[in-house]
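User: quick one, fold this
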Amino acid sequence: LIERDVNNPEITVRAVNGKFILEGFANDKAEKDRAEIIAKTYVPDVVVDTAEADKKILPRKVDVVINLIKIKPAPAQEPRKIVQLVVHYVELQKDYTKGFRFQWTPDIGDGSSLQFSTGGRSPGGVVATITGTISNLLPKLNWAKEHGHARVLQSSSLIVQDGNPGIINSISRLPYQIVNAEGQPSTNFEETGIRTNITPQILGARSDSVQLKLNFAVKSLVSYTDAGPLTSSREIQTVIVVRSGASAAVGGLITNDSGTNYNKLPPNASRNPIISLYASKDFRRNQSQFVVFVTPIIKSSASAGSEKIKRKFRLND
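Assistant:
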C-alpha cells in the first residue's frame, strides 16, 4: 500500500520488526521527504501501558520509519543551442553643391625706395625709386555645380552559442601626417569601419523566439582636411525579441543638411583693394541615411548551412 501511494517504481518499502524501511532512488530531496511522510501515515497509533504511564517502565525511543532512499545525481546539462546572426548594414549618401562668384578686386603693391650714397670714387647723391604692382586687374567669374552619391552595403554573419556574446569587427586604418611637440612630422591613424556586439538568448527550450542584446557602432569617412580625415560616427544600443529566421530593422538615422552663403569672401582675397566689386552665392545639400537589419537563425549544429556557403563562394573540399 505504501509503495502504491508513493507512486515511484524505484522506491521500495520493507517491514522489518515493526519498522518501515524505505529504499531506492528519488529524483530530488523533495521526493525523498514526500515518501517518508507518506510512510509515516501508515504507522499505527501508540498504545500506552499502565506501567509506562506511571513511568515505571520507560519506552525505547526508535524511529518507526527508516529512510534509506538515495538521491539520483543530476543529469549532465544539455549543450546550448547554436544561433547564427546575420547583420546587414545599408548606408546611402547624397551631396549637391552649386556656386556662383564674380570677383574684381584690383590691388596695388607699393615698392618705392630711397637710397643715400657718399664717399668712394662715385659722387654722392640721393637715388629715389617709385614702383607699384597692380594685381587682380582682370575680373573673375566662377560657376560650378557638383553632385555625388554613394551606397554602402555590408553583410556579416557569425555563429555563437546561446547566451554568449558574438563580436565581429571590420576596421580600416587611415594614415595622416601630424607635427609632434618637437616639430617633427609623424603619422597618426584614424579608424573607420563597423563594430558589432550581439548576445542572443533563446527564450525557451521549445521556443523559436530569440532575445537580442545589440551594440552596433559605425564610423565612416566623410572627407579629408588639412588636419586629417573627417569622420562621422553612429551607434545603436537596444534589446529586442525576434523570431528565428525573421529580420528586424533595429535602428536607422536620416540626416538632411543644407546651407546657403551669400557674398562670402574667399580666404585669399585682398583686404584693402583699390576697387571692390564682389558677388557670390553657393548652395550645398547633404543627405544620408542608414539602417541596420538583424536576422537570428537557430541552428541544429555549427556545421549546418556550410554547404550553402561553399556553393556561394565556390569552395571545394
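User: anything notable?
Assistant: The chain has two domains: 2-71, 82-116+125-313.
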